[in-house]
Model the fold of this input.
Amino acid sequence: MPASTPARTPSRWNGLSPEERQRERRRLLIDAAFDLLASEGQAGTTVRAVCAHARLNPRYFYESFDELDALLIAVYDDVIEQLHNEIRAGVRDAGDDPDAAVRGSVEATIRFVDADRRRGQILYVEALGNEALNRRRMNAGFDLVEAVERDAARRRGAPAGSEQIGRIGAALLVGGFSEIVAAWLDGRIDIDADQLIEDATELFVSVGAVAGDLVARRSSPAG
Done:
């Protein structure tokens, strides 16, 4: 009697087009790298480790990424895009109230990283220890500074062309807030999320008010 043929295990790619398979494998690699980068750091986030975590043959890595840094940047971009979506929603809900917009941004960020502390680890810790990620972090910070500056101009009116205090204030808020969140996640600021939202919002509104006063004084005839 002939030996029976073992049943073939269904492939997880069944029913997907080649393009869909590649997109799915790319997503699996990003998710695996997110897990490893947040838990093991960069030392434990190698091509081999990522592929093993994603249960993918290493050859599939190179259909989506030229090198490991490209994958790490994709992880960072994925997290920062999620964060920016949350911030945009928070600002949109604030309507035309500038103070409520500040609170919406602050609360969206803190709730986002508090809901999954791995996100904060990638945004505020691992991004500092890799040259490619740090460049990406700085560019994302510049983009956010410009967004804050544009929003302030929309709500309060554009300053004179040579006036830079708005950009200085925006940079102070963006950079300072990153340090605040990193310190809070690390336990160096020992308060709960609600108190952090209240305190950071009040401080940032105060900075915005001071910047507005400076612009007004400089633009007045007696300034």
Summary: Residues 5-9 have pLDDT under 50 and may be disordered.
